[in-house]
Amino acid sequence: MALFMHKRLREYPVTGGASTLRVSMWNKRLAKYSIKLLKEMKWQGVAMVEFKLDEKNGSANLMEINRKFWGSLPLTINARVDFPYLLYRYLVEKENFKPPSYKLNAKQRWLMPGDILWLYSSIVNTHNVFTSIKDFTASFSVADDIVSLDDPAPTVGAFFDVFKFIHRCFKGAT
Length: 174
Hints:
- The chain is of the alpha+beta class and 174 residues long.
- The chain has two domains: 103 residues, ATP-grasp fold, B domain (D-amino Acid Aminotransferase, Chain A, domain 1), CATH 3.30.470; 60 residues, no CATH class.
- It is 41% helix and 20% strand.
- The strands form two sheets. It has a four-stranded mixed beta sheet. Strands 3-4 form a two-stranded antiparallel sheet.
- A hairpin with a 6-residue loop joins β3 and β4.
- α4 packs antiparallel against α5.
- The longest helix is centred in the C-terminal third of the chain and has 19 residues.
């Protein structure tokens, strides 16, 4: 009923984990694969179909199918595909709707603690402090999953999470 795609630009841990910076995109071939797969499985409800795309040769490998909302959901909402609201409209209001189009190249980040941890890990693992800090600061104008002046309570909670992590690091725990 609705599709949305994004590409991970950064993740923590850097070897594979939650996306900390991502961008909306479209790939017709992956859309077809996903729809065919879900139809064959007689899937109902929310799903995130994740592929690992080899940009050198174009091959796509299925990684997983999640049957719950995903961590990067704020990007979909900001790009005009509000999956929770669409699900409500379908289940509660029994409304059929035209699949919404979405804004391509919309970026969003998960600053605290995700992208801060990415920065720390990137500096430690690559030993290229300048490039890591340059990449990190280039994303300051990007919309954030949590940090918001409109709703400061989650921002305060995220700050506490960062301080707890830093405290654990100083105590020697990881």
